Amino acid sequence: MEIVQTNGLDISYQRVGAGPPLVFVHGAAGGARMWDPQLAGLADEFTVVAWDEPGTGRSSDVPDGFGLTDYAHCLAALIEAISLGPAHVAGLSWGGTVVLELYRHHPELVATLILVDTYAGWKGSLSEDEVQARVAGARQMLAAPAQEFDPTLPGLFAGDPPAEFLPLLEATSADVRPASLEKQLFTMAETDQRALLPHIAVPTLLIWGELDARSPLSVARQFEQAIPDAELVVIPEAGHVSNLERPEPFNQAVREFSRTHPPAHG
């Protein structure tokens, strides 16, 4: 892991490979390690970067008053600090919401968007009843005694998690900070980015698990209709974490899209 500093925060990240820049942004209760199959599988052709957002991994804790725009500014600072922009920028679930906010404030750093099993915020993609149910579930999870805290969100996989990734999932769950998860989930509940989508002016790839129960294909269709230059790839037999459940077709979709839309600087 390497470190950059911005606004008094340490931001840790992994960087492998050489070629056009490809930045991966993890979901809630995640970290850079959730992109291990992409770091390994795409470094032959791309400079692949995965960060630990503030409040995760080796990055600093989230300061008081930190909001969605602050996550976006920190991601922009990372891209600028290691001279990657404009880059292909991919975000999964909560990470896709962060990536959309990056595009809102720093479009010059984004060559393409890759939105994976994500939301325009929960408020922007789900019914009010569903948002309230998720908020209630999050409150219950976060109220558990420390020894019983389990940050595993329901419905992440279509079936059992792939056996080869169980150690990674266990290590990632053990590393989750309750205050960070609270910030991520409650920010999602309050966010509605639908008005931004028609103004996205870069090529956009939507990657969705066919059996995603958390952000179903109906949400993908909303994105596909709202974003002017969007294409949808559905990963068969995959759930919400399609990059882990079916890494080979996921990586191939990213590779083909990124080859077709190289960043302007090379």
Give keywords.
alpha/beta; globular; 10 helices; 18% strand
Mean pLDDT: 94
Order of helices and strands: EEEHEHEHEHHHHEHEHH
Helix content: 25-40%
Radius of gyration, in angstroms, nearest whole number: 17 Å
Briefly note the structural class of the backbone.
alpha/beta
Shape: globular
The low-pLDDT segments are none
Query: How many H/I helical runs?
Result: 10
Tell me what portion of residues adopts beta-strand conformation. Answer: 15-25%
Number of strands: 8
Q: Biggest sheet, open or closed, and with what strands and sense? A: 8 strands, mixed
Distance between the termini: 26 Å
Order of neighbouring strands in the sheet with most strands: 1-2-4-3-5-6-7-8
In short:
With 266 residues, this protein is an alpha/beta fold. The protein has ten helices and eight strands. An eight-stranded mixed sheet has the order 1-2-4-3-5-6-7-8, with helices on both faces.
